[in-house]
Design a protein that fits this description.
- It is a single chain.
- The protein has helices at 3-14, 17-26, 40-45, 49-64, 70-81, 92-130, 134-166, 171-179, 181-188, 195-209, 215-227, 231-263, 269-273, 287-313, 319-326, 333-358, 368-380, 389-394, 400-424, 426-459, 471-493, 497-508, 513-522, 526-531, 535-563, 565-619, 628-645, 654-666, 672-685.
- It has 690 residues and is an all-alpha fold.
- The longest helix is centred in the last third of the chain and has 55 residues, at 565-619.
């Protein structure tokens, strides 16, 4: 069962629970039953009508919560027929049993019709995508070319055999068979000369034949004139157009039947709320009387539903269902439109006849056993309306072999060439693969793993290798400079101890003016002082001073490096980590893009389906409620929406909320305006519908 059918049956069955509880509470002798756990078969074997009805109702309540089996319903009705001559004090249980069986058959029928229209809608979508695109139409012709040629060969063989049987085989007879345009076109394009389309083409052909002697040329010109295209492409377009018209006609007929069943569904809720209130608002009925009034409406709704099922499924009063059963679908535009109009009129007449026959309903004139008998006849003689193999061969999409033999050949030959290329360069490919794996491994080890460990060591002060000089080296160089300057001052200026201490403090501060003054005097006679003077000593002291200055600068630079050591560590690992993050982000986006592309791909069919639903509401002439045909088409389109919704993501309850909107459109309690507002809300709420 479809979700809509299950929900509708559960809703109708739930409206019966109040009547069922009140009856069980009002009849005191039911509480004295010795065994209330009997199965329907065990209760039927006891030949106790009440026990059987209670067991069957209990079993039906359990089955209506899911998918009831028609075999079980047929068995229950067969067993119930054996109690036809038995009498009971109250027929409430009888009507409850028959009503629940009717709901099961009703739900199964609604689900079957909906399932039969789903492949039709999918086939229409397939042909709509092909029609109008020259490349798609040409590719469809290539796909079906082998089957057409095979059909031409077999039909030619059969025609030659028929010719040899009926008359003498002559060269002219064989030539007439082989050159007959009707034979060739009928074999290659069987729908070109079928039914009403043949008459339409022949009328055009007759006007051309007045000026052209060869009938094949005139027929070719007919198709060229109709579609303004070369003959093969024109024939393909004509075939696709006929299939689309035929499928739409058949879906319209099925939708009309579905709409009639929806309109004729039993409604038990409205009468159960006002049963104890008179027209003046006073309680004037007893509990037993109110129960009888409720039972009357239940019996009336059940009888009405059974009559609708009989009319639709058995074809007693509905030409539309009979036409659908025979698959007598005219492919021509004119005949299809008239067929649709005729089926709608018949459906409306059937509805009016059922409503008129049920106006004077009486439980005395129509007992529950008679309704059960009619319902069992519906189950037993239900025609195979939903065997779709008949139209699939003529109007459905091509088979999988037909659609995929061209890509299959491309894959076979292209795959062979690809494998040959790969085997010829097997060694190079293996080398490239190993080098690629080694490159990726080295990248992760030397540019990710090891730098990351270095950052951790830097944070933990475990490895302090960054440094340009040491404090001990600077201290020893400074002390050496201090001793050199103080010794030079003792030798040349004979300073006291206090002056020496003061001079040492100046040297530590970087002041070596004592040496510089001596150097200034010595440089006046550089050659003589270089040999006999102190020029070389002052130069060496200045070199030591330069070394100390360099150490101080290196010490400052070393301090700067050490203060930014963590920054350098992160800077070293940042490019590789950024590249890795970008790679994984790209892979993640590609994976998420698949889901986004799937939503975008399914968004266009969703928008097309909602457009057809809006157009359905706009073109329907009824102001408050939809007609039978429109109601059936609406359910067919909503079933498509339900199938498309399975591809929506489940995060953020997108799918669940979208299905909730679909259920609002399916609800019978909402009028046309409320459903239009629901469609507007869907356009505003869902981004993929914008």
């Amino acid at each position: 069962m479809t979700t809509y059918a299950i929900e509708e049956v559960q809703r109708l069955n739930g409206s019966l629970l109040e009547l069922q509880r009140e009856h069980l509470c009002s009849v005191s002798h039911l509480t004295t039953l010795e065994n209330t756990t009997l199965t329907p078969k065990q209760a039927w074997q006891t030949q106790n009508n009440t026990d059987f009805l209670l067991a069957a109702i209990q079993a039906l309540d359990a089955s209506l919560s899911g998918v009831p089996r028609m075999d079980d319903i047929r068995t229950y009705l067969t067993w119930y027929a054996t109690f036809n001559n038995s009498t009971t004090d109250d027929n409430t249980l009888d009507w409850l049993f028959v009503t629940k069986c009717t709901l099961a058959v009703y739900g199964h029928t609604i689900s079957s019709i909906l399932h039969s229209t789903l492949p039709i809608s999918e086939s229409l979508t397939y042909w709509d995508n092909i029609q109008g695109n020259v490349w798609y139409e040409a590719y469809y012709g290539i796909q079906t070319a082998p089957g057409r040629l095979y059909s031409l060969v077999m039909n030619t063989r059969q025609a030659l055999l028929d010719t040899s049987i009926t008359s003498d085989v002559t060269t002219s007879s064989i030539k007439n068979v082989l050159t007959s345009s009707d034979h060739i076109l009928g074999s290659l394009f069987p729908m070109a000369l079928r039914d009403a389309n043949k008459n339409r083409i022949k009328q055009r052909q007759h006007s051309f034949s007045r000026y052209h002697g060869h009938p094949g040329k005139s027929l070719a010109r007919v198709f060229r004139k109709l579609y303004s295209a070369p003959l093969p492409l024109a024939l393909i377009r004509d075939e696709i157009q006929q299939k689309r018209i035929a499928l739409r006609t058949f879906r319209t007929q099925q939708a009309s039947i579905l709409g009639l069943l929806i309109k004729m569904a039993p409604d038990f809720g409205s009468v159960l709320d006002n049963r104890n209130v008179s027209n003046d608002g006073f309680l004037v009925q007893t509990d037993q009387q109110s129960q009888l009034v409720s039972l009357h409406y239940v019996a009336r709704g059940t009888t009405q539903c059974v009559k609708a099922l009989s009319s639709c499924l058995l074809g007693n009063n509905s030409d539309a269902s009979a036409a659908a059963n025979r698959m007598d679908i005219s492919p021509s535009p004119s005949s299809s439109s008239s067929s649709v109009a005729s089926s709608v009129i018949n459906i409306q007449e059937t509805r009016d006849a059922i409503e008129q026959s049920i106006q004077n309903f009486s439980m005395i004139s129509i007992p529950p056993h008679q309704v059960a008998k009619d319902l069992k006849q519906v189950i037993d003689q239900q025609p195979k309306l939903y065997d779709l193999q008949v139209w699939k061969q003529d109007y459905g999409p091509p088979t999988r072999w037909t659609r995929y033999w061209v890509p299959g050949l491309v894959i076979v030959f292209g795959g062979k060439m690809t494998l040959d290329y790969l085997f010829e360069r097997k060694d190079n490919i293996m080398t490239w693969t190993k080098e690629g794996i080694q490159t990726v491994r080295e990248f992760f080890v030397h540019w990710l793993w090891e730098p990351t460990l270095g950052v951790l060591d830097t944070i933990r002060f475990k490895d302090r290798r960054i440094g340009l000089s040491s404090k001990e080296g600077l201290k020893s160089d400074l002390q050496s400079l201090e001793r050199m300057v103080t010794q030079f001052a003792r030798d040349h200026y004979h300073l006291s101890d206090d002056q020496i201490i003061r001079l040492a403090s100046q040297v530590r501060d970087g002041d070596v003016s004592v040496v510089l003054r001596a150097y200034e005097n010595e440089i006046k006679n550089p050659l003589r002082n270089a040999i006999r003077g102190d020029l070389i000593q002052t130069l060496l002291i200045q070199i030591q001073k330069t070394k100390v200055d360099v150490d101080i600068a290196m010490q400052a630079l070393d301090k700067l490096l050490k203060s930014n050591e963590l920054n350098f560590a992160f800077l070293a690992v940042a490019p590789s980590m950024l590249l890795t993050w970008a790679t994984f982000s790209w892979i993640k986006n590609m994976y998420q893009k698949r889901g986004g592309n799937r939503v975008r791909q399914i968004g266009q069919p969703l928008k097309d389906t909602l457009r057809r639903i809006e157009r359905l509401f706009t073109l329907d002439t009824n102001k408050t409620e939809l007609s039978c045909e429109s109601q059936g088409v609406l359910l067919c389109e909503l079933l498509l929406l339900r199938n498309y919704a399975q591809y929506l993501p489940t995060r953020n309850s997108v799918r669940e909320l979208f299905l909730e909107d679909i259920r609002d459109l399916e609800a019978v309690r909402l009028d046309k305006q409320q459903k239009k507002e629901t469609i507007i809300r869907m356009h505003h709420s869902w981004r993929f519908l914008i």
